[in-house]
Each structure stands twice: as structure tokens, then as C-alpha cells.
Amino acid sequence: MPHSLTIKQIEGKPGHVYYPLQLNDVPKPVPGPGELLVKIYAAALNHRDFFVRQHLYPGISFTSPLLCDGCGTVIEVGPGSSGTAASLLNKLVILTPILGWNADPDGPEDMAKYAIIGASNRYPHGTAQDYIVVRESEVELCPSHLSPVEGAALPLVGLTGWRALVTKSGNAKPGRNILVTGIGGGVALQVLQFGVAIGCNIYVNSGEEAKIDKAIRLGARGGVNYKTEAWERQLQKMLPSDRPYLDAVIDGAGGDIVARASRILKAGGVICSYGMTVAPKMDWSMQAVLKHIDLKGCTTGSRAEFKALVEFVQENKIRPVISRTVKGLQNLDAIDGLFEDMKLGKQFGKLVIEVDLPPELEKAAI
């Protein structure tokens, strides 16, 4: 019997409750017209899932499967499907992590229809299950150099990082100085990899020296520990003499980043904020106003941006960084361990569940 993984509703206030994982027996779904049946091989966690378990995310569902990142093989196409759908049969694909946003660069065309999949009351989709039925427009061929585990690690962090760096920052250009905060998280690492491939000078910060060292090995030009006093002054000393300022900051933490970064951003520089893990609010300073700094919020991205990032990953042979994997949806204790890694900030890269890797692909798993 196929399985799905959901959260179990218990009493508790948002931020204080922690919903337990629940394994469910479910029937094998059947694709309808224009739909694909995908056998899920691997599914990945995001910080969103940790927030969902604490009821700190809007519109959660206790019946829809968890997780929005998944990679698997198309094993059946629905009746009356297009030639495109038929061509996907037996192909490894990655699923789009969002629905309801086609191509508008400003934001979802209709916010009432937009959602990240996984434990969402807006759509029944979620990748923490053995099989999933999706429309043929909701998958992309997995880049040929990626394993299923790597493919599952790409969607949401890749899409968020792509939009922040490429669409929003205006500085995805060779020679631009970009600070990526909180290196070790999935989005930050994707921005690092995208930026290095583009030719940007990527700098990072972290509270752990080991993570900075790993980032440098991945191509970062340098990094600073944000636990040190006046870390922005240390970073400024690392910048090239012919461009001694930052062009943009890609930030997922919030906190005092505006005050810190404003001191070394160029006039008209950009801060792209895709999250606020420090607190749900952050200060905006007069110094930033006087330097004409732009603060741009962004999260996830459109279907068109997803297609573009997958093509970029294929072209540049980028491999998402994997922190740790566990085997099987039934292995609830081990999956809880992945969430614990996230809670403690131990990960460097993505946390992935190997749902059911076929033997011929297990050797390719990270």
C-alpha cells in the first residue's frame, strides 16, 4: 500500500505547538486527462515545513502531504494527454514547488490561486508520498547530470534564489559584489552557486567558520562571521580595490542587516529579502534612505522562472549541495532528525528523504 506523510493536529498555540508526523496508507492515484502519475524517488525539506509544524505558516492542511520538493519518474500518462506528456513517460522529472503563478515578473497573477504545495489547504499536492498526480505543465525534466536526490533538492530553494539574484537584484552580472547571508541554508547556497556561475564576486557570512570555509571551497571570494563585532568592516577589507563596495545583498535572516549592509553598499544598492529567520520584522534606517538603497521582498517565483533556472542548472552543470539524507517515509524518527538539524541550524545544504530509490539509481544518490 502506498504511503503519504502528513502532520497530525494536536492542541497548542502557534509557535508553541509542534505537530507530530503521521504516516498514512493511501490508494495509488490514477491520472486523468492531461495528467501524469509520478513515482516519487526523493523529497526534500525546507524551512517552510519546520514553520508548518509549529503552525507559523498560513493556510496549513492536516490532510495534504507535506513537502514541496520532489523528484521521480513519470510512470503513467492520463487519457487524451498531449504528445508532450507522452514524451515524458519513463523520464526523471522534478516537480514545480508552486502553483498559481505563471509568468508575471511582478508577482502571482492572482494571489488567491497562488500557493507553495505541501500541507497547503489551497492545493492537495505534496511530495512526501510514494505517488503523485500532477498536470503535465507542472514538471520539468530533471537535469541529466543530477541524481534523484539532487533533483529533489533543487526546486524551492533554487526558485527562490534565482528570483532574488537574477530577477530582483539587478546585479546578476560578472564582477558585481554580492553578499549572501546565512550561508549553509539551501537558498543561500543556490545563490552562491548561481552567482559563481554568472561570474559575480560572492561573499558570505555565517555564525560558523566551518560553513564559511566550505562556501569558499564552492567559489565564494571570502566570508565573515556575523557573531564578530563590526563584521561589515571586515567584509569591506575583502572587497576588490577597484570596486570597494557591495552591489547587492541577498538576505534570508533580517535582523540588523539594513543597518550593517548600508555602510558598505553602493549608493542605489539593493537588499533582496527572501525571509526573516531572526524575527518577523526588521528595521529600516535613515542611512539607507540617504544612500537610495532599495529593499526588495521576494519569495519563490513563477513557472517561467522555474523553467529558466532548470535550464541554467543544466547548462552550467550545477549540483545542489546535500547536507544529509534518510531512507523511507516510514522512518519517522530519522525524518524528525532532519527537522532537528534544521532547528539547530546544523545543516550545510539540503535535507532529503530518499522515498524509494530504485537500485539502479541508488549509486547516484548523495
SSE arrangement:
Elements: E1 3-7, E2 21-25, E3 35-44, H1 47-53, E4 69-77, H2 83-87, E5 92-95, E6 98-99, E7 115-116, E8 131-135, E9 139-141, H3 148-153, H4 155-168, E10 177-180, H5 186-198, E11 201-206, H6 209-217, E12 222-225, H7 231-238, E13 246-251, H8 257-262, E14 265-273, H9 286-290, E15 294-297, H10 303-316, E16 322-327, H11 332-344, E17 350-354, H12 359-362
Parallel strand pairs: 10-11, 10-13, 11-12, 13-14, 14-15, 16-17
Antiparallel strand pairs: 1-2, 3-4, 3-8, 3-17, 4-5, 5-9, 6-7
Task: Characterise the protein shown here.
There is one protein chain. It contains 12 helices and 17 strands. The chain is an alpha/beta fold and 366 residues long. The protein starts with a strand and ends with a helix. Helices cover 28% and strands 24% of the residues. The relative contact order is 0.15. Helix 8 (257-262) links the parallel strand 13 and strand 14. The radius of gyration is 20 Å and the shape is globular. The strands form 4 sheets. Strands 3, 4, 5, 8, 9, 16 and 17 form a 7-stranded mixed beta sheet that branches. The chain has a 6-stranded parallel beta sheet with strand order 12-11-10-13-14-15, with helices on both faces. A two-stranded antiparallel ribbon has the order 1-2. The protein has 2 domains: 3-154 and 320-362, Medium-chain alcohol dehydrogenases, catalytic domain (Quinone Oxidoreductase, Chain A, domain 1, Alpha-Beta Complex); 159-297, NAD(P)-binding Rossmann-like Domain (Rossmann fold), CATH 3.40.50.720. It has helices spanning 47-53, 83-87, 148-153, 155-168, 186-198, 209-217, 231-238, 257-262, 286-290, 303-316, 332-344, 359-362; strands at 3-7, 21-25, 35-44, 69-77, 92-95, 98-99, 115-116, 131-135, 139-141, 177-180, 201-206, 222-225, 246-251, 265-273, 294-297, 322-327, 350-354. The longest helix has 14 residues, at 155-168.
